[in-house]
Specification:
The protein has helices at 25-32, 40-51, 102-125, 139-161; strands at 57-60, 70-74, 79-84, 129-134. By secondary structure, it is of the alpha+beta class. The protein has a 4-stranded mixed beta sheet with strand order 1-2-3-4, with helices on both faces.
């Protein structure tokens, strides 16, 4: 028996698997096909930042005990970069609530936004700089922001290591 059919449904009529949020087989296939990393906006930003000579970790945990990963992590200078998808993170400009299964999606997107804020707070408490970009932002502008932030943080780290002059 295929995923499209269940024992209770008449032949040819799709019913979602138990506990599924999908409103149709096509929706289920589409949503299961969404990537959690290596999206086009991420790849573009990473390419530009790498071309500028910066090196970073990809899809890494900024804090060892945190079960969340940043898209790019610059550990020595404590900079975490996130590229947020307009749908999954509730972009104020582009997010459109699905009409099917609306209560599920309201709760899901709301939890994602809360988790993003919690992540930002926890990283800031640990001394990290968090940079978040919407997927629709120009990659060149995002890259310039990342490059500038990492350079500034490196300068701060270097300054803190220099011996202080006493008079």
């Amino acid at each position: 028996m295929s995923e499209q059919e269940s024992p209770k449904a008449p032949t040819g009529q799709w019913t979602p698997p138990e506990g599924s949020w999908a409103s149709s087989a096509a929706t289920r296939r589409s949503m299961l096909g969404n990537r959690s990393r290596d999206t086009a906006p991420e790849l573009l930003l990473r390419s530009l930042v790498h071309a500028a000579g910066l090196r970073y970790r990809v899809a890494a945990k900024p804090l060892p005990k945190m079960r969340r990963t940043a898209d790019m992590v610059f550990r020595p200078v404590k900079v975490a970069v996130f590229i947020d998808g307009c749908f999954w993170h509730g972009c104020p400009e582009h997010f459109v609530m699905p009409k099917a299964n609306q209560p599920y999606w309201e709760e899901k997107i709301g939890r994602n936004i809360q988790r993003d804020r919690d992540t930002d707070d926890r990283l800031a408490e640990a001394g990290w700089l968090v940079l978040r970009f919407w997927e629709h932002r120009e990659p060149e502008a995002c890259a310039a922001t990342v490059i500038k932030a990492v350079a500034a943080r490196r300068e701060e780290v270097q300054a803190s290591k220099r011996p202080r002059k006493t008079s």
